[in-house]
Amino acid sequence: MKNLSIKNKSLTALFLILSLCFGVFFYLFSSYHTMKLEEFKRMNFEKTKNSYLKNIEIHLKKYYLKIAHEFVDDTILKAVFLKDRDLLLDLTKQKHETLKTVDDYVKQVHFHQSNGVTLLRLHQTDKFGDNIALIRDMPRTIHKEQKELFGFELGIHGLSYRVLIPLFYQNNYIGALEFGVSPQKILDIVSYILDIDGMLFLEGESIEKKSNIVQYESAKNKQLLDLMPKEKKYDEIQNQDIYKGNNLYALYSFDIIGYDKKNIGKFVFFSDLSKDYQSYLSYSKKMFFYFILSLIITIIIINYTFNIFIKTLENAYNKIKRYADLINKNVIISSTDLDGKITFVSDALIETCGYSKDELLGQNHNIMKHPDTKKEIHDNLWKTITEDKIYNGEIKNRKKDGGCFWVKVSVSTDYNEEGEKIGYTAIKENITDKKIIEEISITDGLTNIYNRRHFNEVFPKLINSTRRKGELISFLLMDIDHFKQYNDNYGHQMGDNVLISFALCLKNSIKRADDYAFRLGGEEFGIIFKCETKEKAIEFADRLRQNIEDLQIIHDFNGASKFITASIGLVCKNANDISDMDEIYKEADDLLYKAKEEGRNRVVHNL
Known about the structure:
Blueprint: H1 6-71, H2 74-82, H3 85-102, E1 106-113, E2 118-121, H4 137-145, E3 149-155, E4 158-169, E5 172-181, H5 184-194, E6 197-202, E7 213-218, E8 240-244, E9 247-257, E10 263-272, H6 274-330, E11 332-337, E12 342-345, H7 347-353, H8 357-360, H9 375-386, E13 391-398, E14 404-415, E15 421-430, H10 432-442, H11 452-469, E16 472-480, H12 483-490, H13 492-509, E17 516-521, E18 524-529, H14 534-549, E19 566-574, H15 581-597, E20 603-605
Parallel strand pairs: 19-20
Antiparallel strand pairs: 1-2, 1-5, 3-4, 4-5, 6-7, 6-10, 8-9, 9-10, 11-12, 11-15, 13-14, 14-15, 16-18, 16-19, 17-18
């Protein structure tokens, strides 16, 4: 492929695409045909199953229970009661012959005595006196339960659908009448109604013979019998498709459950689907022919117009390449693998951060992580992108020379051609100038902590966010004790140094990302912080007060200590109990005033 011209490569690709399209179309066609065929087979199966079960219920169970009851009259019951076999034979012989004339499926008519001994077999009159209840469940059960029984059961002469009714004479149980019906009847009825072929496959021919055999069949197409070898184990026969040449047959198998709840064989029916299958094969051949013909025509037409087309593509490619170069030089882009190792950087990023491409590729993206970046921001970024979401935010990065640059970043997940996640790509906008201006606008110029403007912006937001979580929020309002006297006696330059040291002490005392320190004006400072309990809030406030005194900045004009100290008002409340910022500020201011009245260098709280 490398030595082929673009034209030949494109024609090859076109051939592959058209072949793929044909393959997809043929797959969809085959799938549709298969789906329709499966649906047709399912409907046939349900129709066969319903016919099979319905006809057992109607033409075996109900019909022969009715025949059995009609077969017996009072004279026959008396003969059974008297155990007079000759009389019973005279009374039933003609009935039996008439029944056989109209219903050749009745193979056994059997009178049982209440003790299980055979009184008369109309189908074999010379055989009597044996106790059939010793070897068969149904005769044994009817003598115990004395109620109608029906179901498939293997007997001495083979499998029959058996119907047994109890016989009573003068309210006393005297025995039972059994009809044995050939399973051939179900095969013939279902085959006739649905116009399909069927057979009965047994685990054993009879109680005494255990070979696997096809005992009955109802098949117009005798070749179907060859599709089911007689030596095949009956339990291996399942619903399946059978292909023979260009013919297709659906095999439906129904287990025959004997009266003893054991599987004794299967009814097997064949549905001829050859017409649909042959139509599918014929249509497939035509489709393939038309595909080859259309492919040849298409390639000829495309080859004729290809030179114009390829020129257009080359122009478009060159244009895209120019755009890509512009993006590479002007847009800050980086890509990493799933572990955060850098796999790609744009020239714009290299120019911004000061690293070379070789210094960045293969390194973890943390190489540009600035120490000021809070852990919560980094954790939130990774949590978002590992959940396959897009992260948007503003992040402070470190340059190679130790400087910093701010970016507005959007990080999304990368996938390979198989749809597998392979890494992440970050597109960034340099917002360093904007962040510098923002920082200046919210930072106190002397102490380098947040100013009153930022306090007014962030405090209401913190109250609202804490209110949603139902958490405690704490606010410290503090004044440097006798700071005017310090300025008057030590000078304003020394006073400024005190303010700077005081602010640094506050900044170093807070640890959480959502704790803030502010210079609110003059020598007045504030801290907003969160804590789990009110006791911990008091403990933090008192520790902060001690940290300030531990600065050991001499203040000979401070009546509360020989060092710089602070009076502190502490308010700690559940955010749901705060109506607005002004309320909590006023309460803290009142507590601060009280701290001054009580001697300064102390914490007064609302708890």
